[in-house]
Amino acid sequence: MSKRILFISVLLFSVISSVQAQQEKLLTNFIFDKMSINPGATGIDIVDGICATSIYRNQWDKVNGAPNSVLFNVEANLSRYFPSAVGISYYHDAIGFNRQNNLTANYSFHLPVANGVLGIGAAVGMVSYGNDPIWQPVNTPAALDPSLNDTKISQAGLDANFGLYYKHNDGWYAGLSAVHLSETELDLLTFTTKRHYYAMGGYTYELNSDIDIEGNVLVRTDAVKFSSDINVRGIYQNNFYGGLTFRPNDAIGIMAGVTGFNVGPGFISGGYSYDVTVNRLKGNSWGSHELFVKYCYMLPPVPRTVTRNPRWL
Fold it and tell me: 3-state SS of the chain?
């Protein structure tokens, strides 16, 4: 059994290393998380409201030490006051003994351009990384290798992102962004937040009065390795959706959910996805599970100010 655990651990490390060292999150529901990887997208999909989105991912289920991730975004469109939007993004990632946290404050200026809106965005915040080794000896405590480090270490540093995001009125969008611009070095952990670059795009086609077909593509790179996601969804009456996501050499995802149901002064969306593992862990993983929920609160209309001539009161 100990040999099997060791084999899986080594295999897990090699797979993680081959996919950007997993510094950057891999989300099948990336279409609901544009803001954290492209601050230019902050608030553009919201019409005069505030939205909160949470995504949980259990990657490579049943593999000991595999990534578990939680994302939480809040964004507000300020178009009633100024053509811009603000947001806060928090991300937590746990892989083995390692813990990574990212917290950023986002701002996007919305500029009308050619029948669409261009978001010019920036984000600044912090990234923290920690290591808390808890080694399990094979037989007795005496069997633990004294050379193994069991000291808890954590350190934080500056983080900054920049992005451009364009949404056209005809149903398509495109974006370019860079994250971890500061490439912060955490000396205590010999860890560097490697700069990553993203390109995204999508288009929604109205098949008929009830069904829309939406396609999305996301490409990420650290200028050494590349990873991509291709997503296609069918949306029924803007209330239900189902679709597939393909991540080459890693997974095929099945997704389904609901969107746009009115709850109080806003609306709620939610969904689930299951990734079938196709990389080297496919014989040991039960796949990856992902849940998301989003609630948007719509601000009340701005009261109209009526000016009357005092002669006609």
Answer: CHHHHHHHHHHHHHHHHHCHHHCCCCCCCHHHCCCCCCHHHCCCCCCCEEEEEEEEEECCCCCCCCCEEEEEEEEEECCCCCCEEEEEEEEEEEECCEEEEEEEEEEEEEEECCCEEEEEEEEEEEEEEEECCCCCCCCCHHHCCCCCCCCCEEEEEEEEEEEEEEEECCCEEEEEEEECCCCCEEHHHCEECCCEEEEEEEEEEECCCCEEEEEEEEEEECCCCEEEEEEEEEEECCCEEEEEEEECCCEEEEEEEEEEEEECCEEEEEEEEEEEECCCCCCCCCCEEEEEEEEEEECCCCCCCCCCCHHHC
